[in-house]
Amino acid sequence: MPQTSFKFVGHGIYPLVEAARLTRIPVRRIVRWTRGYRFRVGSRWHDSPPLIADAAFHSDAGQPYLEFGDLIELRFLEAFLRHGVSMHGIRLASELVRSELGPRPFSTRRLKTDGRSILMVAARDLGEGALLNILQDQFEFRQVISPLLKGMDFQEDEPARWWPRLKRGLVVVDPTRRFGAPIIARYGIPTKVLDAAVRAEGSAEAAAEWYEVSTRAVTAAVEFERQLAA
Question: Does pTM top 0.85 for this prediction?
Answer without folding.
Answer: no
